[in-house]
Amino acid sequence: MNEFSVNIQSMKNKLLIIIGVLAIAGTSANAGWFGLGVKPVPYLKVPFVKLVVPCPSAVAGPRAGTEVDVNVSTRGANVALPWVKGWVRWPSLTLGEGKATVTIGPKHRPSKEVAKKKVAAKKGKRERKPAK
Question: Is the Cβ–Cβ distance between 82 and 66 less than 8 Å?
Answer without folding.
Answer: yes
